[in-house]
Target: Histidinol dehydrogenase
Amino acid sequence: MKKEDILTRGICFDPEIERTVDEILASVRTNGDQALYEYNRRFDHADLSSLEVSQEEMQKAYKAVASKFLETLKLARKNIEDFHRRQVRSQFVITDQPGVVLGQKITPIERVGLYVPGGTAAYPSTVLMNAVPAKLAGVQEVVMVTPPNEDGSIKPEVLAAAQIAGISRVFKVGGAQAIAALCYGTKTIPRVDKITGPGNIYVATAKRRVYGMVDIDMIAGPSEILVIADETSKPAQVAADLLSQAEHDRMASAVLVTDSLKLAKEVQEELKKQLMTLPRSEIARTSMENNGKIILTDSIDEAVKISNQIAPEHLELSVQDPFRILGAVKNAGSIFLGTQVPEALGDYLAGPNHTLPTGGTARFSSPLSVDDFVKKSSFIYYTADALDKIGDHVIDFAKKEGLDGHARAISVRTKGELL
Ligand SMILES: NC(=O)c1ccc[n+]([C@@H]2O[C@H](COP(=O)([O-])OP(=O)(O)OC[C@H]3O[C@@H](n4cnc5c(N)ncnc54)[C@H](O)[C@@H]3O)[C@@H](O)[C@H]2O)c1
Ligand SMILES: N[C@H](CO)Cc1c[nH]c[nH+]1
Ligand SMILES: [Zn+2]
Model:
């Protein structure tokens, strides 16, 4: 594999997946709930009698979760809240000019739909990562969708996390059909203003396709990790971190970029060894075969340049002095500093969000944040005197643009006539 081949990697546009997703979107739009029941049977092998999780199911689930894990969920919620609270913005008002008030007001989005993945694993952590910033932003109605298990249930830990996060309604549907339901609305599932949350390629593609009819947070698709490591890194730790993301999905990716040939060889051996005992080894092995790479560079600075071109979801700077190179990192969703900090820490408990841009979109997208759950409106107030002062400039501007109607809207006030 040549370096150039790696650098061309980007968001995946597989025509077959696009076609499948478009069919699902169209079917849900036309057939509503009936299509959702049908897709639940086809993709999740679940024959449901109701799409919505009942209050009894919620309560039963909460009781079924070990109290120690409830404490863990609450600790995670606290850390996520502490981090995201710093993102809350307030409105600003400018009164620098006499008779003029300018400002920006912040309004929470009214109804948001959270996608919580659930195909090959359960993701209570994703419930918290999405719901906590939504709540801090002041969103009134937060609904959640997640695929059902074959017996029609949802993992109790996921429902417990939903309750700990204050989510009002949970619906048993996943994949592109869940995104369609949130975008168009069905008899059971309310249409939302914005969809957030990660998912596999079907989910990520569906979000991209519905964008514009509904807002989305970003393309948060199959997980990715890029580890920049020098000779101070421990091969067993680097390999474990690579596999921690490879195990998410057969389409996940795990890349090591190192200036040490010795480390590269040792990590390769470790990967083989660790794969033998990893429970999700089939998924991890497939993703390593498809998207796993080791790139040897002349220096760590060159490694950073390569990483910037790939723009990974997660970047580990597993080097002696990570702060030396932090400034040179331009494109990465979340950055993990030093040999002691595994990416998995950020997945669960550190506090920053784990819903992150993938497929090279970290070039322009950011981690999920409180900002994703609010809108900004600017406002303008001028007294008549203030408008008089500036009126001729506006009239001139409008005329230069050939827009006489605009000029008149000013002159009818400042001159009492239509110019
Ligand atoms: N980028 C991030 O921030 C982030 C965070 C957490 C998880 N993830 C990713 O989320 C994903 C979770 O994937 P998952 O599959 O376990 O759960 P998922 O909930 O994303 O997807 C499961 C759904 O996919 C649909 N599906 C499966 N096969 C299909 C097919 N052949 N045709 C049409 N639809 C099909 C089904 O409807 C199923 O319900 C992984 O890719 C993981 O890496 C990303
Ligand atoms: N690594 C995932 C984001 O790509 C987030 C996650 C949740 N649970 C475990 N990991
Ligand atoms: Zn993870």
